[in-house]
Amino acid sequence: MGRSRPFHRFTPAERRLWQAYPTGAWVDLRESRDVDAGSGGSWGRSRIVRAEVITALLLSRRDDGSAWVPGVRLAGARIVGDLNLSDATVEAKIHLLDCHIAGTVSLNDAKTRGVRLRHCDIYRFRASRATVDGLLDLDRSAVHAGVRLDNARITGQLRLSGLRLGTPGAAPYRGGQPGSSPPESSRWNGPEGSEEPRVWESVALWAGGLAVEGGAFLRDLRATGGLRLIGARFASGLYLEGAAVAADATPAVHADHLQAAAAELGAGFTSDGTVRLRGARIGGVLSFHGAVVRAPGRALHLSHLQADELILLPKSVEGEVNLGYSRFGVLFDRPESYPAGVRLNGLTYESLRGPATLADRLTWLRRDPGGYRPQPYEQLAAYYRRIGHESDARRVLLARQRARRRTLRFPGRLWGRLLDGLVGYGYRPWLAGVWAVLLLAAGTAVFARWQPHQIGLDESRHFSAFVYTLDLLVPVSLFEQRGAWEPVGWTQWLAYGLIAAGWILATALIAGGTRVLRGSHAP
Question: Which residue spans traverse the membrane (predicted)?
Fold first, then answer.
């Protein structure tokens, strides 16, 4: 390999790395297998490797026809300075293990093969718009000033399991002398005018537009700051089981319009801040099984989302849940999943799973902070009809009318209560029969005791209290009893009341029946 030596002096560690590079052999500087890379700032000269030496190796070209595959494989080193490979095409693999990197690792706009920085202590990692042909691995590392992967493309897996993440606003620069400021090239600045500085400073993982063809594994990640995944695409799924994210000035997880084959945010996932997936598209399961989500105001913002199945079985939720205008094949939840209310307007689903009873579902509908909306009731009724539970569907639609009544003015509420009490808004027509039987029995008993006077004395008629009462209740006289007999005394008012009750019952039946026929096709 034709490689010039641009450095007049090497540290012992640099000399070993330079000699090992052509074959990609490991250079292990660890004094024991139990290494804490966070204390690497105190390691001596024998373990120091300048970042510019690594850069020079990675950007060199092979020209000797060697069959060996070059690479940087370094363990237990104290790397000083910024490892800047921005805009470069790196053909060798990079594998750093248990290393302390005081500056910034920058792969912005670079094209590289696999990059593995495992169990390392790093100031900042940047790979905006980079193309990584293979694995990007930061497992069990610590990155104090955040990771940036916006618009990067990774053909293999993204491994950030066990990663400890800080934010740019909370991590002092460590690449130079104590108390020095970072060079302009290593500062994390947002696009001019695009974001408030404090938003950039509070984001631990900035990965908007990231595309990962393999699985993205962020299990057991610990982040003090938000995860920004807007528009990211995970062809083989996103896995955050056991991760803990705490954010104050930004959502804990901000993943609007995310696309993933599956998304696992359960099994110990903890969020201190809003989890926002507005407009996301999940080809398989989106799971919050066993998650803990806490946020003042809205805890889960899942509106306009599409997923084959949403498993909403968290260990606990503190805050509002928004499912508005989302579409799910299956919604698997339980009543206690929504302790602070749930927004449901526009939500559609094919199936419901979980222990919730019909009464639980009706309570679910009433817990929308936005107040009464007809669509959630109609959607639930349509689901019960689809599975053959027509009686449950009718109970849901009756509950819809009662909820709507509370939004009306006094005359409308009064008429609604009358319809509800007489015929259950048409969904309980048998109530009209019950009222009719009670009125018929009462009238028969009274008129049998206080018999009306016959009007036409020249005619011989036989009085029947039952038929007379029935003729009063029917809006149009069928038995010609009204005109033949005249009630006496206070029974006149009973007769007038029976006539009025008959008209009210008939009107209620007609109005309720009209509501049922008009509403049966709405869901």
Answer: 430-450, 462-481, 493-517
243-301: pLDDT as tens digits: 999 987 779 999 999 999 999 998 899 999 999 999 999 999 999 999 999 998 899 99
The 8-class DSSP code of residue 226 comes to E
The closest of 283, 245, 287 to 264, measured between CA atoms, is 287
**Helix count and strand count (H, E) for the chain:** 10, 40
- DSSP track, 138-157: -TT-EETT-EE-TT-EESS-
- This prediction's pTM: 0.76
Q: What is the dihedral of CA 459, 460, 465, 469, to 10 degrees?
A: -30
Q: Which long-range CB contacts under 8 A does 395-399 form with residues at least 24 apart?
A: 395/358, 395/362, 395/427, 396/358, 396/361, 396/362, 396/365, 397/425, 397/427, 397/519, 398/424, 398/425, 398/427, 398/428, 399/362, 399/365
Query: Which residues lie below 8 Å from residue 441, measured CB to CB, with a gap of 6+?
Result: none
Query: pLDDT digit string (tens) for 85-126?
Result: 999 898 888 999 999 999 999 999 999 988 999 999 999 999
Question: Which is nearest to 481 in space by CA: 497, 495, 502?
Answer: 495
pLDDT lower than 50: segments of the chain: 1-2, 65, 67, 176-181, 183-197, 517, 519-523
Query: Which token pair is 50?
Result: 């300048």
DSSP reduced 3-state for 205 = strand
Give 333-337's long-range contacts (Cβ < 8 A, gap of 24+): 335/360, 335/363, 335/364, 337/312, 337/313
What does the alpha-carbon distance between residue 444 and residue 442 come to, in Å, rounded to a whole number? 6
Q: Give 324's contacts (C-beta < 8 A, 6+ positions apart).
A: 303, 304, 343, 344, 345, 346, 347
Report which residue type is found at 169. G
Tokens representing 106? 């920058």
Q: Dig out the tokens for 232 from the structure.
A: 């990211």
CA of 163: how far to CAs of 137, 209, 391, in Å? 10, 21, 53
For 9, other C-beta atoms within 10 Å of its C-beta total: 6
Taking a C-beta distance cutoff of 8 angstroms, is the pair 456, 484 a contact? yes
Measured between its terminal Cα atoms, the distance across the chain in Å is: 73
Residue in this structure with the two tokens 């206080």, named with its chain if needed = 450
Query: Two tokens at 19?
Result: 């000699």
Query: How high is the pLDDT of residue 186?
Result: 45
Q: Using the 8-state DSSP alphabet, how is residue 217 labeled?
A: E
Q: What is the DSSP string of 308-365?
A: EEEEE--SEEEEEEE-TT-EEEEEEE-GGG-TT-EE-TT-EEEEEESS--HHHHHHHH
Read off the amino acid at residue 385: R
Phi and psi torsions of 391, nearest 5°: -65, -40
The encoded tokens of residue 517 equal 């026929």
